[in-house]
Amino acid sequence: MRKPIIAGNWKMNKLAGDGARFLLNVREQLPEAEKVEAVVCAPYIHLPLLTEAARDFPVGIAAQNMHFEDSGAFTGEVSPEMLKDILVDYVVLGHSERREMFGETDESVNQKVKAAFNHEMTPIVCVGESLEQRENNETFTFVEKQVKAGLAGLTEEQAKQVVIAYEPIWAIGTGKTATSEEANDVCAHIRQVLKDTFSEDVSEAIRIQYGGSVKPANIDELLSQSDIDGALVGGASLEEDSFVKLVEAGANA
Ligand SMILES: O=C(CO)COP(=O)(O)O
């Protein structure tokens, strides 16, 4: 049984103090950590306040990106060592917005995934096809390529700990959710790819989230699918009530 993981991706929203208040307000309402893993993915400058606010409460804190080197002449970048130093446990890698707007590639995602493991952080690796690719029936092959390249060179033990977020680009922020069957089909395909690439143990252990217009009204149905183990939620994770409902849905899945 894979523990559901519900992550709120705040993207470039909220001021740091508002983020910390959000956590202080929701933390007592969140279900026990045995039932669900709750994560908030926040802008870099919020992270020290958030890891402090989340201390002793069942919510993990994620960065939305990082560099793969520990230090050096990379102006404007933040390193895995810096994140670990302020107690960040997760890092979102290869979000489609970073791939589209900031030049992230499968190769850089792979370097960052390895760097995350070097610093004992859990990578949440995002994959997903564009509308054009879906219409051309390229979804499976495209997502397969992203998964294989993103996880290349990992040991089985590392691969088991990766979280994959399947986020069809056409469903992000559009209000258009993939139907739960469509989402599950791709997640099942990803699991098959993991089985072929690593082993059955890896494919059974790894958690696959769905992302793209998830909200309290549709999360139960998505989580009821065989291969969807959680959600990566943008817009609907910004409100406290809605975030708590999403995490509760994970606990009840
Ligand atoms: O990109 C997403 C999460 O990473 C999804 O965003 P929305 O939930 O706003 O569609």
UniProtKB/TrEMBL annotation:
Q: Does the keyword Cell membrane apply?
A: no
The record's keywords, sorted A to Z, are:
Cytoplasm, Gluconeogenesis, Glycolysis, Isomerase, Phosphoprotein
What is annotated as the active site? Answer: H95, E167
Q: Which reaction does it catalyse?
A: D-glyceraldehyde 3-phosphate = dihydroxyacetone phosphate
| Modification sites for Phosphoserine | S213
Which residues are noted in the entry as substrate-binding? N9, W10, K11, G173, S213, G234, G235
Which Pfam families did the record assign? Answer: TIM (PF00121)
Q: Which PANTHER family match?
A: TRIOSEPHOSPHATE ISOMERASE
Oligomer and partners: Homodimer.
Q: What does this protein do?
A: Involved in the gluconeogenesis. Catalyzes stereospecifically the conversion of dihydroxyacetone phosphate (DHAP) to D-glyceraldehyde-3-phosphate (G3P).
What is the protein named? Triosephosphate isomerase
Write the gene name.
tpiA
